[in-house]
Amino acid sequence: MKRLYILLALIPLIFACQKEDAYTGLRPDERLSEAMQKYENLLKDAPYGWKGHLYTQEGGGYGFLFNFDGSNRVEMLADISNESTHISKESSYRLKAALLPSLYFDTYSYIHLLADPDPDVFGGKPAWGYYSDFEFSILKSSADSILMRGNLNGSKLLLVKASQEESNAYKAGNLQTLKSGTIDFLSTNRFPYIMTKTGDLVALNFNMRTKKLTLTYDSAQQVQNKSVGFAFSGLNYLELESPIRYGGTQINRFSLDKASSFLVGLDGAKETQLFSSSTPLFSFNQMLGVQFDYILIPFEENVPGSGSDFNSRRTAALNQLQTMLAAGSKFPYLAVRFDKKEKTMLLTLVIQQGNESYVANYSFYYTIENEKYRFVYEKAVDGNANYVFEAMIPLLQGFVNGDFNFDYQVVNNELMGYGQSASNPNFKFLGTLE
């Protein structure tokens, strides 16, 4: 019995020794401090900077070059505007030990524009901007890449070490060169597409405003759409947020041949050729909201091919507007824009007075059957629309006159969109597709 007491008394000492011997690593705060130093060294130990590919929750992609100096200052270039492609902007930054080690861009810079809540600053949505971030949690890293997630909106930021050649190209304005080359490609190849290994045709729409690539394809006799963000990067690439796959074909990025302004899809070393069609592969209704969002109708002139009734109503409205408003007021165009989700059509008149521009918006509900639209007038949306309502009545009445057909029409070698009343064929308007 006495021996048992002695053994029991020794048990706490035995476990205490085991616990002390088992702990040979760093304390949690020491491990965190070590991780933060590791990331600090990683950021600054990139002699030619980091290529940044930022993909927002709204779906767009944006390319950057970041140079971190290790003393809480970072210089950046970006593809978000003409200025940002060649004028470097500096911000402070810091690494913070949050739930995950995080990188914070502290002072206002190009990356903040995408998250600015004021739509007057960079055109984003009120209170949210483009659903982007400037504070990021570090998810994983290697010697030449860092993957991060935005702490507020969950946007994705991938940093990849730049080479000396890439860094020199960025500083020489290569982001603008890539943008201009892509615009040149799209101006001469307005409706690009690829042919997959299975023989399917997939339409590609590179939207330079939203920085999204949208694929349109026929799946089981039903048109499907898929969008992915793209960011300009390096010497000649458009980097996709995720690979696009269809019919046995995969594309991870696009390469721009700057000499010919032609894009090629790449999957590693495998190339996918892009073809071009003179007209969209799919109907007007199928491409509405994908290849284009609205029809822009010149308001101060007759467009060849437009109907006599539409022109007389437009002219009557124009004459009365010129009488009502200040001398010299201009009316460059009328926009017909559809919201397929809400089943509404917005008619927007643009008014220019000197250097200022104003809009008058009128909304319609619509139904669609067999690709024929029928409109019901809802209301004047804003004060400007109310003010010029009397002048616009003849034109507004033309849109509530039976079914409407919408389709493409080539005018002077330019593909345009038109709308036409089935019951009054002379109420026909044409405009550019945007």
From TrEMBL:
Pfam families: DUF4302. This is Uncharacterized protein DUF4302. It comes from Sphingobacterium yanglingense.
